[in-house]
Amino acid sequence: MPICYNKTGEIMEGLGNNAKIKKMTLIALLVSSSLVLSYVDMFISRLAFPFLPATKIGLANIIVVYAIYSLNFKEAAFIAIMKSLMSLLLGNVIGFLISINASILSFFGMYGGYKAFKKIASPVSISVIGGFLHITGQLIVVQLIYRLGYVLLFYSAIAIFISLITSILIGFITLRFLSYTKNKNS
C-alpha cells in the first residue's frame, strides 16, 4: 500500500481505509449526479411546463431520497444542500434563496418521515412528503419576497398538483435505483 504524506511531510493516517475512500467517492458521485440531473431537469421542465415558470420535475431528488435511504444524516444533508447550490450556479440569488429554503424544509421532512415510518414508508411516500414540503417552502418564500396574493394561490393549486405527480414518479425511480444498487452490492 502506498504511503501518503500531508503538506508538512507527515504520514497521513486513515487513507488506507478503503471504506472511507469508497464512501467519499460515493458522496462525490451522488453530488455530481444531482447537479447533472438538476441541469437536465431545467431543460426538460421548460418543455414539459412552459405555462408554469420555475416549475421543475425534481429529478435531482432521486439522489436525495436515495441518500436518505443509503447514507447517514450528515451525508444526506450535505448532498441536499449541494443540490441547491446548482440553482445559484445556473440562476440567480433570488432563485437560490427560494431553492435552499425549500430544500432544507423538504430534506428535514423526508428524513423525519423516513426515521418515523421506516418500517412502513417507501421511497414513494418519502418523495411525496419531500415534494409537498418543497413546493410549500418555495411558495412561502415567493410570497414573502413578491407579495403576489391571490395570483400565487391559483398558481399554488396547480404547482402542488404537478408536484404530487412528479414526486410519485421520482419515488418510483428511486425505488428502482435502490433495488438495483442493493442487488449489485449483494
Highlighted features:
186 residues; Arp2/3 complex 21 kDa subunit ARPC3; mainly alpha
Please write out the topology:
Elements lengths: L17 H31 L12 H10 L2 H18 L2 H24 L6 H24 L3 H36 L1
Describe this structure in words.
- This protein is mainly α and 186 residues long.
- It has one domain (18-181): Arp2/3 complex 21 kDa subunit ARPC3 (Orthogonal Bundle).
- 77% of the residues lie in helices and 0% in strands.
- It has helices at residues 18-48, 61-70, 73-90, 93-116, 123-146, 150-185.
- Helix 2 packs antiparallel against helix 3.
- The protein is globular, with a radius of gyration of 19 Å.
- The mean pLDDT is 88.
Note the total helix count. 6
Give the SSE order as H and E letters. Answer: HHHHHH
Mean pLDDT: 88
Compute the number of structural domains. 1
Major sheet attributes: none
Main CATH class = Mainly Alpha
* Distance N to C terminus: 27 Å
CATH overall fold name: Arp2/3 complex 21 kDa subunit ARPC3
Helix-residue proportion: over 70%
* pLDDT < 50 runs, ≥5 residues: none
Number of beta-strand segments: 0
CATH architecture name? Orthogonal Bundle
Fraction in beta strands? under 5%
Overall spatial form: globular
- Radius of gyration, in angstroms, nearest whole number: 19 Å
Main structural class: mainly alpha
